[in-house]
Fold these 2 entries.
Entry 1:
Amino acid sequence: MDTGTPLAQVDHLVYAVPELERGIADLEQLLGVRAARGGRHPTWGTCNALLGLGRRAYLEIIAPDPELPAPAAGRPFGLDTGGTPGLVAWAAAGGGLDALCTRAASQGVALGAVQPGSRRAPDGTLLEWRLTDLRHALLDGVVPFFIDWGTTPHPALIAPVGATLTALRIEHPDPGRVRATLGVLLGIDLPVSAGRTAALISEIDCPRGRTTLR
């Protein structure tokens, strides 16, 4: 699935926060652009807000929804632990997800079952998608899950504008394994370097200048 540039494969970045409104305000202070409320995910017990990062990429701010119960298996992205806000995952744009999962499994990479997802936008519009299992976080979340929006308009097209993703890189204690896994799944060479802990590090051009978000 080689698109010629790593950023062309980025669908969205996932930024986890303990409380959504506080997360929106903190990122507005950092980036100079305010994210807009997205909707609620009853299946996951979460709610989100979105900020465009380009025509086909966006930042998802995700938090526990206090009005929704947590699923039996817990909320995704470690949201039940109340950890420090930060980038916890990223989604890669993909089609033919069933075939992708089969091909990855044949190379020893388990993405889990493809699942449907949906939410209502604030204006009542129903957004629907298919994605690989969020609970199969590979290599501490630095390897992406995959999402296919089908006929639903891409959320970046209606998210607030003013910020642009210019770079995404990875740090991990086992960079060679990360590079190999990304090669199996993506066929691209996302920058990966050694680090004491796993981290996703993005560079974003915004009204505050070029800003690092991790």
Entry 2:
Amino acid sequence: MRKMYIAIATVGMMGATAHASVIGTTYTDATHDLLNSSLTNIDLVSARFSNDATHLHLSVTVLGDVSATTWGDYLVFIDHTPSLTAPGRGDADGPRGNPFHRGIATPVGTDAFIGSWLDDGGGNLSYTFDGDQWNQKEAGTPNLARAASGIVSWTFSLESLGLAAGDTFRFDVATTGGADDGSSVDLLSTDAIRPGWGFDEDSTLDLTYTVAGSTAVPGIGGIAALAGLGLARRRRNR
């Protein structure tokens, strides 16, 4: 079973009006669902997507301290347009492949990809697929302020990922090692244990997130109403 929690965080309250907010959803994963239980730095616990008016925020939580073990890689696959006719996973430039050349494909292709690594100072890259090839969009460094708690965070502009307010996209998050041509070790979308490092696989892309069209937060009366309703929660049986 996977639970998705929708939460509203407010910033800068003045009187009855909030000036800024971030709306997001947290997706949980079973722990110890990987081939070696000692690999806690890539054992997914949860991932959280949120957005403001211009940026998509993502944080991934793993079971171990990623400041102590820094060789893990984190991959995000995003699909938000109709299915593309595409070659198979062997074509790294195709929408069913990925620019990090990992043995992970998606059933209908992806439009955007995020890849991040923590060793050698860490870094992250975002790409979009133009129907012919992958194009790098933004580069940066992951936020490791909470690395000791197993949390790595990133922020990308919505524009760089081809996203806009109101878009719903399908996605998956994978953890793996640093070698090219390896597969994922843990996928957010499934609790099935991957058989090893070198096995090609398909992600189902059955998780979804909708970019909030408005991040305005209600006034005091609206907040009181939300408090009465409690935290919205959806459960999806797998």
